[in-house]
Amino acid sequence: MSETPDDPARLCEEARRLAEDGELGLAAQLFEQVVDLGDTPLRAQAALGLAVVLDDAGNVTAARAADRTAIATRDPEYGPRAAYHLALTHERAGEHGEAGPAWQMVVDFGNPAYMPPALLALARLADDGGDFDAARGHWEEAIATGDPEYGPVAAHDLAQRLLERGDPARAQRILTAGLKLIDRETAPYAYSRLAVAVGISYLDQAIGAFGAALGDGDEPADPEIGPLATELLARTLPLRGRGGEARDIWRRGLADTGVAGQVRARLRRDFGAEDDEVDPADVWWEPVMESAVSDGSLPALAGEAFGALDHMYALLAVRYAEGGGEAHELLGRAIRVPSDYAWGPLLHESFAERLRLAMGTPAPPGWPDA
């Protein structure tokens, strides 16, 4: 009487234990023994176990063959898991052409536990290949699964592509659907990521609306709405990293004789001139500031101006600190000029610290007003 083969369940459990202990060779032998038993209920499980062990041991070719054995069983659990593992081996090797069919096999099994990441992977591959329609279909399917982990990622990726293609309204709908899949308390980062993307989609929609109000520039702007649309568009574009376009919008408005005065007033709304009787044309730096605002280079201009002021103030303050001479009173008045400005104390502190480091002498208490 022939011997009865070992129990497949016991062999699989022993192989799993050996694999966890790092005995990959022995584990592979036991998994392969179960596979060789033929069409048993544990054939798919053993084939997948064999594939994982062989992959860990560096034998990728044999691992992929074991994956295909598991897939061929059509087992509803271990079949898609084996296809998933097969796809990962191709992804890891940069073999995207082979990874795609493996991910599609995962989807074809219809197991909801493995479909979302497979759909997301298919969308990414199609997107990388320049097939937006196919990528969009996979992203939409991933969102439709309702998976709280992969659905929001798919929504974010699809929305980004829609924004790039000038379709912010559809991007908003996609992102809103993605937000509904997230528990804000348990996944605050994912929620914030999509919420910011929603805000960006509204910015893009606003940019489109403001631009439509201005038209293509061949005709003069509407004197009532043109200046407002110019300001709103020019101030919104930099928020999307489109400062060059904002500069062109300001220049276009300033060149339109019908609205130039109103556009200039809006451009200068934050200049904060206290003396309404002062004609900006009489102040040499006004055109420089106006140009910097329209060009989006005001921070750079401020940095240059403060740097020059700091240098000149230090030279004056050193001469004043040395004392003596008929220019002493004049120098004193000069270094007190910034005292009434919000940034005056910072300038004073900068000089006091440099004086202490250079001469070892602290500035007088209450400098420079004492």
TrEMBL record:
InterPro entries noted in UniProt: TPR-like_helical_dom_sf
Protein name: Tetratricopeptide repeat protein
Protein source organism: Actinomadura barringtoniae
Organism placement in taxonomy: Bacteria, Bacillati, Actinomycetota, Actinomycetes, Streptosporangiales
